[in-house]
Design a protein that fits this description.
14 helices; about 0% strand; globular; about 70% helix; mainly alpha
C-alpha cells in the first residue's frame, strides 16, 4: 500500500503546474549562472564553469533557496488533505498511518528530487552556449554532475523536505509553514554570514552547517585550481559525517511527523468544540418545569 500511495502522489505532483514552473525557473537560473560572464557560482579565475568544485558550489547554493520550492510540493501534501478532509477518510480504511504519511512524503519527495534535476540540466546546457568562452569550460564529465547532485543535492533536499513536512503536519497551515521557511532561511543566512567569516569557527561550521558548504570548504581549502577543475572531494572524514548527521536529522523530523500527526484537522480544539455542541444539544432537549401562574401561587382566601 505504501508503494501505491507514493506512486499516486508522485504522479499527482507531476500533473501540477507548480512542479513545472519551479523546474523551469530554477533551470533558467542555473543556465544563466553558467552562461553569463557576470555570475560566478564557485567558478572564476582559473576554475572552469563546469568544474567539480563549481558544480558542488552551485548545488549547495541552489539547495538553500530551493527550500521554498520544496515546501510548495512536500508540505502541501498535508495541508491539501486537511483542507479536503481526505486524510481522515483514508485512515478510516485499512491503510495504516505510516503507509499513508510516508507514502505521501516519499511520493512528493521523488517529485522534488526530479524537479531539482533542472539545476543540473541548466548548468549543463549553459556550457554549450556559443557566446560562452571555451577557455572557461572544461571537459564534459557526467560523473561530476552526479556527484554534486547525490552528495549535496539529494541530502539537502531530504533534510528540508522532512523538516517542512513535519512543520506542516503540526500546523496544518501552508501560511504557517511558509513563515517557518522564511524564519529558517533568515536564521541560516545570518548564522553562516557571521560564523563563516571567522576562521576560528571553520571546524564548527564544517560539522554544523546542514547543506555541506562548511565541510566542503574545509576539505578543499588548500586545493589548487587544477585540483578544483579535476577532483571531487573524497566522501570521508568531516564531509562524510556531515552528510550522515544531517540525513539522520531529517529522519528524526520524519519520525516526529509520524508521532505528531493526528487525523483530526484541529485536534483537541475540534474535540472540545464537539463536546460543547453536544452539551448544548443535551440541555436544549431536557424538559423544563412548567412555570406556576400567580393564581396558583397565591394562598386560598
Amino acid at each position: 500500500m505504501f508503494a501505491k500511495i507514493a506512486s499516486f502522489e508522485f504522479r499527482y505532483q507531476l500533473r501540477q503546474p507548480a512542479f513545472w514552473v519551479i523546474a523551469i525557473v530554477f533551470g533558467l537560473l542555473a543556465f544563466g549562472a553558467v552562461a553569463s560572464d557576470n555570475v560566478s557560482l564557485g567558478s572564476g579565475g582559473n576554475v572552469f564553469k563546469n568544474a567539480p568544485y563549481a558544480l558542488a558550489g552551485a548545488h549547495i547554493i541552489f539547495n538553500v533557496f530551493f527550500m521554498l520550492a520544496t515546501t510548495a510540493i512536500v508540505a502541501n501534501v498535508v495541508a491539501r488533505d486537511t483542507q479536503t478532509g481526505f486524510g481522515p477518510m483514508i485512515l478510516s480504511t485499512r491503510i495504516t498511518k505510516g503507509a499513508y504519511l510516508y507514502g505521501r512524503f516519499f511520493g512528493a519527495f521523488a517529485a522534488v528530487a526530479l524537479c531539482y534535476l533542472s539545476i543540473a540540466i541548466g548548468t549543463l546546457a549553459g556550457t554549450f552556449m556559443p557566446w560562452v568562452d571555451p577557455e572557461t569550460v572544461g571537459p564534459l564529465r557526467l560523473g561530476d554532475y552526479a556527484y554534486a547532485y547525490l552528495v549535496f543535492g539529494l541530502t539537502g533536499l531530504f533534510l528540508t523536505s522532512a523538516l517542512f513536512f513535519m512543520l506542516a503536519t503540526v500546523t496544518r497551515s501552508m501560511m504557517a509553514t511558509y513563515i517557518g521557511v522564511v524564519g529558517v532561511l533568515i536564521a541560516y543566512l545570518a548564522s553562516t554570514g557571521v560564523l563563516g567569516s571567522r576562521p576560528e569557527f571553520e571546524t564548527a561550521m564544517a560539522w554544523a552547517e546542514p547543506f555541506g558548504s562548511g565541510a566542503y570548504a574545509l576539505v578543499t581549502k588548500y586545493w589548487t585550481a587544477a585540483e578544483r577543475n579535476t577532483l571531487n572531494a573524497p566522501i570521508e572524514g568531516v564531509l562524510l559525517w556531515n552528510r550522515v548527521i544531517w540525513t539522520a536529522v531529517g529522519a528524526i523530523f520524519l519520525a516526529a511527523a509520524y508521532v505528531l500527526y493526528r487525523p483530526s484537522p484541529r485536534g483537541a480544539k475540534l474535540k472540545k468544540q464537539e463536546r460543547l455542541k453536544g452539551s448544548k444539544r443535551t440541555s436544549s432537549s431536557r424538559p423544563s418545569a412548567p412555570c406556576r401562574s400567580p393564581a396558583m401561587a397565591s394562598p386560598a382566601a
